[in-house]
């Protein structure tokens, strides 16, 4: 008998029917190998003894009774810390297909229990919202008047974009003639691997990414670049010729910058660009945080901090008073550090003030671009409320900024890059090209790359999302060798290459029917249609249905 | 789709010969209209004095004509010659044509102290003011061009019939250059202003094809807030404006036009003698890169003629002729119609990297390749 006292009935006691994911286990197939329990990142399941009644009916003696047997089975924990996150690792390792998480079709009560120990819920990863306006946009300016003009398979396409300040033509010619400084401009692939720091990613993951990026550049001629995120860059990378594929990020924590600055004399080449982070799409206006369990020896060394301490970046650059001042001084300082040969640009979160920041940059001769990160952008660790409900969607923000530049005749003088939900439902090219046709010069994507290149388990249905806890079951975002050994960098590299080759094909398939091949269709808004009248009006694109 | 025909000759000829070339290529267009530009104009009944601006357009009502007269007078332009077309109204499709005008004016005395640039500016602003006036009055006045030595005629209908309707075969007007296009507006509405050739400050182009990069280019040109960069009833109008921008505003040599609208690839520029300059030019002008299948033909105030192709070379075009007269057309039959007695071995069909240039002396044409040295001293 189970005594009534042992039944938990505290205010926050839950049964697994209250949790977002319910682990289904078929006892008849389970051989109790224990693989699932050992791989479960949250220890949501455990092997436990169970008692089972064996009814006993002796017909001849007309006697009834019960026998009991004890056996070993799998149970699901029901406290929030150990809840099943639906990652599916258990089913992945089970040799008998005996176990797996099921989404709870009920209203799950777990939401009401998230403020535990006085803290609000937080997670790594995704916004957990399937809807995406970008997925609804179609490319429909297809001319049937002239002959169907281009063949995506056979014709040559120019798909690269420019990162760097573009001078107005007359000014360019004047400076050329006068031998004056011309701002640095990089020709890059418009899909950029967005900032994921070397602290956030495991060593195997970033090694794989870097290898893949190098292969794309050096073998395939696709000029892919990746951004480091805050937290520096391993010294051997800084001194390697691969640095030219890397955008170094500086954020308000200034982590890793000592190492970077010290390495300048030994650099063989310049980095692709410098990104100054002021904000990000998820948790805009909030700082960054690398939690202590991800601050391994290597990360501690890269960032110049002690091992095993939390590394918060303040929400603002503490040494500067205003974004104008900050943008101005940092851009100038960074440009100077590399002899005005490296594009320097800020990254801000999508917000109503994006336009003012942009106009501020237009007037700064050293500013090279603006990266706007919308609400769907990810982050390694954020409060649920920041992730779910704080921020500005990217499409209208980019469009507004672009049209503002158009009115001034300065579009693409300061290229606008967009991020935030590109490829969140698996349609990176549709999303990216839509943003480009709305006026972006290129897009950054992080989560899509993690999913496509490393098999990240996270989904927009609140699956996994424990990146922040250092227990990433795939070894993508954990600093524990036990976990990241699961990830083979060579395979990641291979997938990176697959992805970029695939993106290129899809881009051509978009561009060819629109009759575009000579340049990226930046601002080609006449090609866009959407079956939502309000969105069409706001974005100034066609309403189609 | 549309077809282009253009002839340039030392001895003035009748525009009707170019319209006949259009007829030869009749299968290439739907006959929805004709656009003509004449340069180096000669009137049989009037001795035209070089430098006097010629106003071309259509007054659709009597009152618009009176407004026009009042406006020109008020601005100090004196009418020197008013060409009367021998119109056969039965052959004109549209019923609201009150008067086709082609009038020579004398510049106002107030222009005496103006620099050439200022005069050019005034001529453009005058044309734009007339156009705006027409638009304000329900489109009752259409002004195509106002420039020395240039006459423009645009009308809806089958090209040959339009020519006959306006009596263009009567030899009363001849010119040293004639550009003609059978009209069809790609993707955008039909409108008299949408008819090629397009004109701005003496620079004119016409196009066979489609410019799929139109919207971003239009946005960029409009953003310059230069008064002449307006209109855009057709995706091809930007070709004329880009040519104007390159030659008049950036003051680059004519060859730069090709480098701006269809720049070379990065790898190609790496091997180009002035690759670094051209790469920068490409970046600075990247908003003006055209796309889509196009053949662009154009003429400049000094009577230079050019022809360029888009990068894919997906439109046909041929030049042929003999010293003193050259014909450019979408199809060889068009060239045949204009200059039948030529040495056909001199015919040339430009490729994606070529700009064909017929200089004002018209002795021979040059084929300039984008891979060649670019004539820019600063870039050397
Ligand atoms: S789905 Fe993941 S979290 Fe849930 S029980 Fe399986 S391994 Fe554990
Ligand atoms: S697999 Fe790793 S990176 Fe992906 S959501 Fe889970 S914890 Fe985060």
State the gist of this model.
Chain A has 17 helices and 21 strands. Chain A has helices at residues 35-39, 89-93, 133-136, 169-178, 203-218, 235-238, 257-263, 297-303, 323-337, 354-362, 384-389, 394-408, 428-438, 447-454, 481-484, 489-514, 533-539, and strands at 21-25, 45-58, 63-76, 99-103, 122-125, 138-139, 161-164, 185-188, 191-193, 226-227, 246-250, 273-277, 289-290, 311-312, 344-349, 370-373, 379-383, 416-419, 442-445, 528-530, 542-543. In chain B, 27% of the residues lie in helices and 28% in strands.
In terms of DSSP E residues, the strand content of chain B is 25-35%
* Gyration radius of chain B, rounded: 20 Å
Q: How are the strands of the biggest sheet of chain A laid out side by side?
A: 9-19-18-16-15-12-11-10
Share of residues in helices of chain A: 25-40%
- What oligomeric state do these chains adopt? heterodimer
Shape of chain A: elongated
Give an account of the 3D structure.
The complex is a heterodimer of chains A (545) and B (380). With 545 residues, chain A is α/β, with parallel strands linked by helices. Chain A has helices at 35-39, 89-93, 133-136, 169-178, 203-218, 235-238, 257-263, 297-303, 323-337, 354-362, 384-389, 394-408, 428-438, 447-454, 481-484, 489-514, 533-539; strands spanning 21-25, 45-58, 63-76, 99-103, 122-125, 138-139, 161-164, 185-188, 191-193, 226-227, 246-250, 273-277, 289-290, 311-312, 344-349, 370-373, 379-383, 416-419, 442-445, 528-530, 542-543. In chain A, the strands form seven sheets. Chain A has an eight-stranded parallel sheet. In chain A, strand 2 and strand 3 (63-76) form a beta hairpin. In chain A, helix 5 crosses helix 16 and helix 13 (428-438) packs across helix 16. The longest helix of chain A is centred in the C-terminal third of the chain and has 26 residues, at 489-514. Chain A is elongated. Chain A starts with 20 loop residues before the first strand and ends with a strand. In chain B, strand 11 and strand 12 form a beta hairpin. The relative contact order of chain B is 0.17. The mean pLDDT of chain B is 91. Chain B is an alpha+beta fold and 380 residues long. One iron/sulfur cluster (SF4) binds at residues 87, 124-125, 450, 456-458, 464-467, 472-474, 476-477 of chain A.
């Amino acid at each position: 008998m189970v005594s009534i006292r042992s039944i938990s009935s505290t205010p926050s006691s839950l049964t697994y029917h209250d949790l977002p994911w319910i682990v289904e286990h078929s006892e008849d197939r389970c051989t109790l190998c224990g693989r699932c329990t050992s791989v479960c990142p949250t220890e949501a399941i455990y092997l436990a003894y169970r008692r089972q009644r064996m009814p006993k009916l002796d017909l001849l003696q007309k006697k009834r009774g019960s026998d009991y047997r004890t056996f070993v089975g799998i149970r699901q924990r029901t406290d929030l810390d150990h809840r099943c996150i639906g990652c599916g690792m258990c089913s992945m390792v089970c040799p008998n297909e005996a176990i797996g998480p099921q989404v709870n079709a009920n209203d799950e009560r777990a939401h009401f229990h998230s403020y535990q120990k006085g803290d609000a819920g937080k997670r790594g990863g995704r916004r957990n919202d399937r809807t995406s306006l970008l997925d609804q946009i179609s490319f429909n300016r297809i001319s049937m008047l002239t002959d169907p003009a281009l063949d995506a398979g056979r014709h040559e396409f120019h798909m690269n974009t420019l990162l760097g300040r573009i001078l107005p033509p007359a000014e360019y010619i004047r400076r050329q003639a006068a031998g004056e400084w011309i701002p640095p401009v990089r020709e890059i692939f418009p899909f950029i691997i967005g900032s994921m720091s070397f602290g956030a990613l495991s060593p195997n993951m970033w090694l794989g990414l870097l290898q893949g990026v190098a292969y794309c550049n050096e073998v395939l001629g696709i000029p892919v670049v990746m951004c480091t995120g805050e937290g520096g860059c391993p010294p051997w990378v800084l001194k390697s010729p691969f640095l030219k594929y890397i955008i170094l990020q500086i954020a308000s924590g200034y982590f890793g910058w000592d190492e970077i600055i010290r390495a300048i004399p030994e650099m063989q080449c310049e980095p692709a660009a410098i990104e100054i982070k002021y904000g990000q799409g998820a948790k805009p206006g909030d700082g960054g945080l690398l939690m202590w369990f991800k601050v391994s020896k290597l990360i501690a060394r890269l960032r110049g901090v002690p091992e095993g301490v939390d590394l918060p970046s303040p929400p603002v650059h503490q040494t500067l008073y205003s974004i104008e001042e900050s943008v101005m001084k940092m851009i100038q300082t960074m440009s100077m550090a590399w002899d005005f040969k490296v594009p320097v640009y800020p990254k801000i979160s999508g917000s109503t003030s994006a336009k003012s920041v942009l106009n501020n940059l237009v007037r700064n001769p050293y500013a090279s671009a603006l990266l706007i990160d919308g609400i769907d952008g990810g982050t390694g660790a954020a409060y649920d409320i920041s992730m779910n409900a704080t921020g500005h969607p990217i499409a209208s923000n980019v469009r507004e900024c672009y049209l503002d530049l158009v009115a001034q005749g300065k579009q693409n003088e300061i290229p606008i890059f967009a991020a935030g939900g590109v490829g969140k439902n698996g349609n990176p090219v549709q999303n990216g090209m839509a943003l480009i046709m709305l006026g972006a010069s290129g897009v950054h994507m992080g989560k899509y790359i993690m999913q496509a290149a490393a098999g990240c388990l996270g989904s927009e249905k609140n699956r996994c999302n424990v990146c922040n806890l250092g227990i990433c079951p795939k070894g993508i975002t954990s600093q524990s060798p036990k976990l990241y050994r699961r990830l083979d960098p060579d395979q990641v590299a291979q997938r990176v290459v697959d992805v970029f080759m695939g993106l290129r094909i899809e881009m051509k398939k978009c561009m060819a029917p629109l009759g575009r091949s000579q340049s990226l269709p930046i601002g080609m808004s006449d090609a866009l249609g959407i079956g939502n009248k309000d969105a069409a009006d706001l974005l100034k694109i066609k309403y189609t249905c | 789709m549309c077809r282009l025909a253009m002839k340039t000759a030392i001895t003035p000829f009748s525009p009707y010969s170019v319209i006949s070339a259009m007829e030869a290529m009749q299968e290439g267009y739907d006959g929805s209209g004709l656009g003509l530009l004449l340069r180096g104009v000669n009137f049989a009944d009037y001795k035209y004095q070089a430098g006097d601006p010629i106003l071309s357009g259509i007054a659709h009502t009597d009152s618009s004509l009176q407004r026009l007269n009042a406006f020109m007078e008020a601005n100090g332009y004196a009418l020197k010659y008013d060409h009367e077309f021998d119109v056969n109204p039965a052959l004109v499709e549209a019923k609201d044509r009150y008067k086709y005008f082609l009038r020579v004016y004398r510049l106002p005395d107030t222009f005496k102290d103006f620099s050439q640039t200022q005069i050019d500016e005034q001529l453009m602003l005058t044309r734009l003011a007339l156009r705006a006036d027409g638009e304000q009055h329900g489109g009752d006045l259409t002004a195509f061009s106002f420039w020395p030595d240039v006459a423009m005629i645009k009308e809806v209908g089958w090209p040959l019939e339009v020519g006959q309707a306006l009596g263009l075969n009567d030899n009363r007007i001849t010119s040293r250059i004639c550009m003609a296009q059978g009209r069809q507006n790609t993707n955008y509405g039909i409108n008299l202003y949408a008819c090629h050739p397009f004109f701005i400050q003496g620079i004119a182009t016409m196009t066979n094809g489609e410019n799929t990069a139109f919207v971003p280019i239009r946005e960029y040109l409009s953003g310059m807030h230069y008064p002449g960069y307006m209109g855009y009833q057709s995706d091809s109008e930007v070709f004329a404006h880009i040519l104007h921008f390159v030659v008049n505003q950036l003051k680059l040599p004519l060859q730069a036009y090709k480098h701006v609208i269809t720049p070379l690839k990065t790898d190609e520029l790496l091997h180009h003698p002035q690759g670094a300059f051209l790469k920068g030019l490409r970046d600075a002008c990247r908003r003006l890169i055209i796309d889509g299948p196009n053949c662009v033909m154009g003429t400049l105030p000094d009577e230079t003629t050019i022809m360029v192709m888009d990068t894919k070379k997906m439109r046909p075009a041929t030049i042929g002729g003999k010293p003193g007269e050259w014909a450019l057309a979408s199809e060889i039959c068009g060239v045949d119609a204009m200059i039948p007695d030529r040495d056909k071995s001199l015919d040339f069909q430009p490729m994606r990297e070529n700009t064909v240039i017929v200089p004002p002396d018209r002795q021979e044409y040059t084929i300039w390749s984008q891979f060649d040295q670019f004539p820019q001293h600063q870039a050397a």
